[in-house]
Amino acid sequence: MSKYLYGAAVQGIQDFIFKTNELKHIIGASELVEQICTTVFDKLIEDCGIKTGESVVRAAGNIKFIFENEDDCKKVVREFPKRVMTMAPGVTISQAVVLMENDFGKAIDDIEALLKVQRNKPTRSVTTGLVGVKRANNTGLPVVKVEGFKDESTVQKELFQNVKGLCEKSFGKDAISAKNVAYNVSDITDKNDWIAVIHADGNGLGKVVQVVGKQKDVFRDFSQKLDTATKEAANIAFEAVADKFTEKKIIPIRPVVLSGDDMTVIIRGDLALDYANAFITAFEETTKKHLGDILKEQHVFADDKDYLTACAGIAFIKSSYPFYYGYQLAEDLCGQAKKDTKAIYGAETNYLPPSCLMFHKVQDSFIVDYKDIVVRELTSKDGLSFKAGPYYIHPQNSKNTVEDLIQASLLLNSENGDGIKSGIRNWISLRIEDKNKAGQRKNRMLQIFIDDKAVEALTNEKDNRCMAYDVLAYNTIINQQTK
């Protein structure tokens, strides 16, 4: 008997979540999006009176569902986009359906090809409104609620802003209460205004899906266990930094996305590196625990690795900086880290790239792409790069590690620390413009700070890269006190 494989991909999630700089609205949006592939889809199936069917994938903005008959499938295709876009204005749904006989693998290939076409088609926004209507000040969208002049997306986000589901998933149910969840940016900052947006993403998932995605039961099992592994990794990362804010009443971490192999959080600046490092390390451990048998049995990777790795990008921003651009930078940094780690094996695509992370501290109000930041701020006239990342979680030949960064930062906590920081900042400015003048400045510092290892360590130009910029940035974020 013929069945119908239905596929849906949720688009515009990040734009919807970060369309505002109000943390409480970001919270509502993230909680709302979390439910699209689960609660919302389940309710639609129930409301349509569908009694049969089989769920294959329901995570990370992707749905794969097998319908027993055409009528049931048509009901969902007709109603799901309308329900989602009403609930989350600005979010859109790409859908596709293929007739499935017995070959699930072929059906998956066909559905992915159709979804790719659908995703590339322009979608007319249902939120733009007409000329001459009153618009909300913070979003520019048509006002639907006169009190406070709020647009529809803001109204919907406020309905979900007190839901704690994503926090429970990220921290563990026993860790939170109604009183310790952060709803305002001021709840996240501490001794200074530095906060961070972290975006982490698993490595090698495309390769995994190529192998296991054509086997229905294995694919479903893998997707469910991946979601569990990512959740457990987030719980472990939370525990790794919890002792640094136990005296506070509010947890200075706000999860935004935690699904599939994706993780995005807004977090207090001084916690960000430790949290990201702990999450990635735990992700390797939890994927080995939950997915190890599948990865080995299916021979996914050439070296038969029985775990997954991940990369992360950390955008350090001031609390007043637009969250949307902070997220874009974090995503860009994560992409740069992935590009670097994939290059380790060159043209070989069957090996699992190692885990690493990149970060950048936004120094000004200019909003530009990271590649422009590298040219403008991080490259000297003679080609020396102050882009010393990515930083690898485990030692990797000549690559810098997270531990290298931490140890270099600790060198600045000596009794000569303030003087060395000032000297290194001056050296960086000179090194970008004039190598000879920078050399004179370095020699002078070595004369002043005779027994201090920091000067030599921070000005070391290994592989035409220097860690000085990153070390100063990280040290400032964790030590600066402005409140």
Describe the protein.
This protein has 483 residues and is α+β, with helices and mostly antiparallel strands. The chain contains 17 helices and 12 strands. It has helices at 13-17, 23-34, 36-47, 70-87, 104-119, 152-160, 165-171, 205-212, 216-242, 272-297, 323-342, 370-377, 402-410, 417-433, 435-448, 454-458, 468-479, and strands at 3-11, 54-59, 62-67, 92-100, 143-145, 150-151, 194-202, 253-259, 262-268, 310-318, 356-361, 391-392. The strands form 3 sheets. It has a 6-stranded mixed sheet with strand order 8-9-7-10-11-12. The chain has a 4-stranded antiparallel sheet with strand order 2-3-1-4, sandwiched between helices. Strand 10, helix 11 (323-342) and strand 11 (356-361) form a beta-alpha-beta unit. The longest helix is centred in the middle third of the chain and has 27 residues, at 216-242. The termini are far apart. The model has no long low-confidence stretch (mean pLDDT 88).
Characteristics:
47% helix; single chain; alpha+beta; six-stranded mixed sheet; 12 strands; four-stranded antiparallel sheet
List the helices and strands and how they pair.
Elements (H helix, E strand, L loop, with lengths): L2 E9 L1 H5 L5 H12 L1 H12 L6 E6 L2 E6 L2 H18 L4 E9 L3 H16 L23 E3 L4 E2 H9 L4 H7 L22 E9 L2 H8 L3 H27 L10 E7 L2 E7 L3 H26 L12 E9 L4 H20 L13 E6 L8 H8 L13 E2 L9 H9 L6 H17 L1 H14 L5 H5 L9 H12 L4
Parallel strand pairs: 10-11
Antiparallel strand pairs: 1-3, 1-4, 2-3, 5-6, 7-9, 7-10, 8-9, 11-12
Helix pairs in contact: 2-6, 3-4, 9-10, 13-17, 14-15
